[in-house]
Amino acid sequence: MRRYLGRQTLQLVAVILGISLLSFSILHVIGDPVVLMVPETAPREEHERIRKLLGLDQPVWVQYWRFASRAAQGDFGKSWYADMPAFGLVLERMPPTIYLTLAGLGVALLLALPLGTVAALRRHSSIDTLCTMVAVAGQATPIFWLGIMLIIVFAVHLRWLPASGYGTWQHFVMPAFTLGVFLAPITMRLVRSGLIDVLSSDYVKTARAKGLAEGAVVVKHAFRNACLPVITVLGLQFGQLLGGAIITEAVFAWPGVATLTVDSIRNQDFPVVQCAVVLLALIIVAVNFLVDVLVAVIDPRIRVSG
Amino acid sequence: MKAGATPGELELVPAPVTAGGAQGRVLLRRAWRLKWGLAAGVLLAVVVALTVLAGWVAPHDPLAVNIRHRLAPPAWMDGGTRAHLLGTDQVGRDVLSRIVYGGRVSLAVGVGAVLVSATIGVALGLAAGYFGGRTDWTTMTLVNVMLTFPFVLLALAVIAVLGPSLTNMIIVLGVAGWPIYCRVVRTEALALREREFVLAARALGMSHTRIMLRELLPNLVSPVVVIATLQVAQVIILESFLSFLGLGVQPPTPAWGNMLGEGRVYMLNSWWIAAFPGLAIFVTTLTINLVGNALRDWVDPHMKL
User: Fold this and answer.
1) How far is CA B96 from CA A100, B76, B89, B282, in A?
2) To 10 degrees, what angle do helices A60-72 and A2-25 make?
3) What is the pLDDT of residues A207-238, one digit of tens each?
4) Which chain B residue lies closest to A33 (C-alpha atoms)?
5) Which of A4, A94, A256, B136 lies deepest, with the highest CB count within 10 Å?
6) Who among B9, B151, B282 is closest to A141 (CB)?
7) In a 3-state reduction of DSSP, which class is residue B16?
8) How far apart are CA A32 and CA A5, in angstroms?
9) Contact indicator for B129, B189 with CB cutoff of 8 Å
10) Do A261 and B5 touch (CB under 8 A)?
11) How far apart are CA A210 and CA A205, in angstroms?
12) Model pTM score
């Protein structure tokens, strides 16, 4: 177990290093911050002055070191737009994003667990085909379009739900459903294939041979083990889930990190963009790491071989 | 679940199930699946043909403004005219014509970006799998970094710096999408490099590059083609999301995404401006996915992608 953890930690460090490099290069290598900050018409001396002021006349690796060491302390500089530290701005918007993500995950599981189970138990039946069709259609749906269609039907015409905003449970219904549809197809496929694998395994046969009721076999023996690949892949898909949350937030004007990031991109407020990108990526890395370790704790085969 | 749920599958006979008459059923099933894929392929061909021939097919100029006919509903609704089958937008441009032309952006970005990411992914995956060791570790760490980063966020941030344009979108979505190819190609290459024909090629003194391109690459074509097909759909959705946010192709050039974004403002009264471009995205990505799935089943039903 200790060796396994050591290997995972080494990879973790490498990934964090990579993220910092990537987010640094977004601004400093691809673009020129001075061009973005100072109007083109300003005199050359002004450009040079700002360049010196920001330390951009130094070699790239010195700049990177400064960015990384400050970022490690939560200092991403001040927002160029609002006169506040970027870190605080981003942190403040984190809770709505996390709630939305969890709600979307919940909806996805509510849809995927029953459908995937039914599809696995009645494999090759018309129900199975129908579930697969729904999953394929779900995967092809652009969720920002789905969100807008939901708004047109349920907010504009039926007036049942608020079109956008944040606060009450009603505000959660459409965004959570939209995000759920984004994640449900892949989850359903995982539940289905996981259950099918497990149902043909020896211990399930033993359980059946013992004369256990089919319900008990499925719920107690098969389902728990089928959850393992679902947890793993969902953990690894957490980045995708957050990506979906970004799209959902944009449609419903959800006051989360994603809306802040998109707004900051429009305002060319790069300290905020960098900070949001780094923090979101760190959350994803942390979740992936926890899932890896959790699965290794549950399933001894992984920490020995993997 | 009560007893009696598909009893055939719950019996304790795993292996012989596929023998005899059941084999015919499996074949029929495969054919049945392919039928969906073929139907989708025909539909996709129609979509592609429509966009390529947009100049002849579209009933109107997609940029022709006609303020007197603004916000006209689709033909079958009250106040709709046969001249504008799917209605007009906020400045009286024909929605149908704009959708037909808008497909060009989506398909160009979809195909272009997939070519870019497949090239990068296959090259790195081949190197990682063939050389192994440190090359492998570095590449896979890079893959992990890329997979950790939310694709959408990365694309947003880079587009914001580079500025929105068709070329930039192809570059960004192409560069962001390579890890999936890299992972699959690496796994395959790892298995292939121990095989006799590769060892023989090495014994003959072939260079590493030549072995990778001449011996390994031909064996990797089918998984790469399957992934690439499915990825075109993903890229189209992402491209339209970027355009939806105003970070993609700039108006007045029609793209499905920016039509959706503009239509959102008018959704209170004129739902069709946003609804139909979205429907076009949905139909296109659905058919691409069905074709991709059929392709995968045909090439190798056990492929896990």
Assistant:
1) 35, 14, 10, 16
2) 120
3) 778 877 777 777 777 777 777 777 777 777 77
4) B161
5) A256
6) B282
7) helix
8) 40
9) yes
10) no
11) 9
12) 0.82
Q: Map residue B102 onto helix, strand or coil.
A: helix
Task: List the structure tokens of A281.
Answer: 């990526």
- CA B305 – CA B298 distance, rounded (Å): 14
pLDDT at A305: 53
Cα(A234)–Cα(A183) distance, integer angstroms: 9
Interface touch B267/A152, C-beta < 8 Å: yes
Q: Inter-axis angle of helices A143-150 and B272-299, to 10 degrees?
A: 140
Question: How close is the nearest chain A Cα to the Cα of B40, in Å?
Answer: 12
B67 interface with A at CB cutoff 8 Å: no
Classify B94 as helix, strand or coil.
Answer: strand
Helices B256-265 and B217-244: crossing angle in degrees, nearest 10, is 20
Residue A133: CA count within 13 A, CB half-sphere: 11
Q: Distance (Å, rounded) from C-alpha A249 to C-alpha A176?
A: 10
Return the DSSP state at A123: T
Cα–Cα distance for residue pair A66/A292, rounded to 1 Å:
32
The residue with tokens 């359903």 is A188
Name the pLDDT band for B119 (thresholds 50, 70, 90): very high
